[in-house]
Protein 1
Amino acid sequence: MARAALITGSSGGIGADIALKLSQNGFKVFLTGRNESRLIEQAKKCSAIGYMAGDLSDDNFLELLFRSAKDKFGQIDILINNAGSYVWSPVEKTDKSKIDEIFRLNLQVPYKLCRLAVSDMKFNKWGRIVNIGSISGIVGEANASLYSASKAGLIGLTKALALELAEHNITVNLVNPGWVKTEMVEPLFTDGILDEAEQMDMIPQRRWIEPCEISALVNYLASEDARGITGQSINLCAGLSLG
Ligand code: NAD
């Protein structure tokens, strides 16, 4: 029986690639993101079982999304908490509204979706939760303290849930990418906030991470073969975390 995966932030960037990879490997996928036309296009590419566009920060949407995915699938076996948002700002200049916004999307939304998803996983004695963190949550990133803090929170969530759910055959893991050229970070470089050559110089492999590298790892973590891996925080960063 094909396992069913709900992937947040799958209208573009890393999430779109994860959805495609899982669908190519026989998983049933349900997509969600904010941009409806892109979501429809991506859903077609993935032969998705369903999709729903909306803002995950809105609790009503979040619950509606969960119910719709569950109705389509019958059950959600795999939850990929990928949607996230970044803000570059020195701490004293950070817009106050961003504090709630970033913590809500990057940390509370994954928590809320886990809260909704685990009952069925426990009942079925099978589940996979993969959170997408960031290397910024591991090593800290100057002028991105809000983002770093929100992503560091996912480490605690991942470890605690892994412990709590291990006996139910549910694994919970965290993937921490380094720089990936997506719409989330491209403006940092095109607007001159960061210098690409300088950033690449700090990476031992001197390169960007490709979305396909992340989706391949997520695909593995979602598979039966990865049943022994839980509570892990895996850095996929071309060596950036090594300092
Ligand atoms: P992206 O901007 O290309 O894609 C983000 C996706 O999240 C989109 O589908 C968007 O619709 C969705 N999204 C954002 N805010 C949302 C909201 N409020 N409600 C619903 N959906 C929302 O970004 P990306 O680079 O693909 O990032 C994906 C994940 O990877 C994020 O969690 C990000 O923090 C993490 N990450 C990215 C990088 C990088 O360098 N790009 C590095 C480390 C970690």
Protein 2
Amino acid sequence: MAEIKACIFDMDGVLVSTEIYHFKAWKRLTETLGFTIDEAFNENLKGVSRSVCIDLILKHGGLAKTQDEKDALAAQKNQWFLEYVQTEITPKNVYPGVIDFLKEVQSRGIKTAIGSASKNAPLLIEKLGIKSYFNAIVDGNMITKAKPNPEVFLKGAELIGVKPENCVVFEDAISGVEAAKNGGMYCIGVGDSTILNKADFCIHSFTEMNFDRLSDL
Ligand code: BG6
Ligand code: MG
């Protein structure tokens, strides 16, 4: 690829182990509605905005709701998600290898940004004490188009002044990998390569990543 000048990271499921709390809260919500969701279905919810998640979930359960009802369901899910986060999240939820990798790339002059669909990203970043590792943060409050639209990553690239072709995106979601590729960026999947099969390649953990490996791309 072209010279790497920036790394853009999704947050949930890439930097921090928060996907499990989203899944727990959505599953709890569906169970109040008389059905349930499994981990395979949850792959479709990763990376996409709260409102798109509600539509996908209701379709899956064969239910139709008014916009007001959907808003109330989304608010309930978010309340549960925040309860899990408040009681369970600590800096230990930052995945192994993440901080070392961020420090290493920053020391080599590579810009770093977060590109997250989550409206809760600012709260989580604060709680985890990781803000100083990033030159820019784009979250769900700053965008209008959900992944796989590339808006979140293009905005991140713009804020740090780097062209898309010089950016590497790290993503754990199918929709997020598609967003990166739609934005003309190189994409490293974090997770199962059979699920993230549109990524340029996949890693399981940041303990596998370092500046030299990045430079070899
Ligand atoms: C993404 C998560 O980062 O943010 C999704 O992968 C989540 O699971 C989405 O639905 C929106 O998050 P929030 O916190 O705004 O409801
Ligand atoms: Mg994610």
